[in-house]
């Protein structure tokens, strides 16, 4: 197979697997023409450019327990490189462990957000235990999901935040945070 045929095969496979719409607006560092030699470094640079620019998925996961503190509300983060304007769907799940004495109520807030220390009111999930329950270490699987608009290309970071709202100690473990880039979704309305 000559270099031209190889190049055509590679790009045909890329187009077939990724779709022509996903390649719109992506600038490749090297262009090839018929009869010119193709260098492996140039082809690899083009693949690296595609890899860095294409929409994708980023995920972080950690099993160890992290104390919920007022000083460090972000218990996990994930970064994704987006090629341009669009949306990022962020999903999180974790195990909330509450060290409950039974003497007073316990309230915790969990949310995904695009700021490491701020929860917007429309992004939170509250978990509460009323006073009077038996003293115990209670565990809950919690999840949060939001769609965030992005207006420019580049790396974007999203956070899973946990806040203690009642003076009761807690930890977050088994954390998973995923970000998926979406090019178009129509109009997005958060509750």
Notable traits:
191 residues, 5-stranded antiparallel beta sheet, 4-stranded antiparallel beta sheet, 45% strand
What does this 3D model show about the protein?
The chain is an alpha+beta fold and 191 residues long. It is built from three helices and nine strands; from the N terminus they run αααβββββββββ. It is elongated. 21% of the residues are buried.
What's a concise summary of this model?
This protein has 191 residues and is α+β, with helices and mostly antiparallel strands. The protein is 18% helix and 45% strand. It has helices at residues 3-18, 20-23, 40-53, and strands spanning 57-62, 66-67, 74-82, 86-100, 106-113, 124-129, 136-150, 154-164, 170-182.
How would you state the average pLDDT, rounded? Answer: 81
Structural class category: alpha+beta
Number of helices: 3
The radius of gyration is 23 Å
Residue share in β-strands: 35-45%
Give the low-pLDDT segments: none
List SSEs in N-to-C order: HHHEEEEEEEEE
Largest sheet: 5 strands, antiparallel
Shape: elongated
Strands, total number: 9
Helix content: 10-25%
Instruction: Note the gap between the termini.
Output: 56 Å
Oligomeric state of the chains present here = single chain
């Amino acid at each position: 197979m000559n270099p031209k045929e190889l190049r055509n095969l590679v790009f045909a496979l890329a187009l077939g697997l990724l779709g022509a719409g996903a390649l719109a607006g992506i600038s490749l560092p090297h262009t090839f023409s018929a009869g010119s030699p193709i260098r492996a470094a140039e082809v690899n640079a083009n693949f690296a450019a595609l890899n860095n620019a294409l929409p994708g998925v980023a995920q972080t996961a950690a099993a160890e327990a992290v104390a919920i503190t007022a000083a460090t509300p972000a218990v996990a983060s994930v970064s994704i490189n987006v090629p341009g304007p669009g949306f990022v769907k962020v999903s999180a799940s974790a195990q909330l462990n509450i060290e409950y004495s039974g003497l007073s109520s316990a309230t915790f807030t969990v949310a995904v957000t695009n700021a490491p220390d701020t929860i917007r009111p429309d992004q939170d999930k509250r978990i509460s235990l009323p006073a009077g329950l038996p003293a115990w270490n209670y565990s809950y699987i919690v999840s949060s999901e939001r769609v965030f608009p992005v207006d420019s290309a580049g790396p974007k970071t999203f956070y899973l935040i946990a806040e203690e709202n009642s003076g009761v100690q807690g930890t977050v473990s088994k954390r998973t945070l995923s970000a998926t880039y979406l090019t178009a979704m129509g109009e997005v309305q958060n509750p």
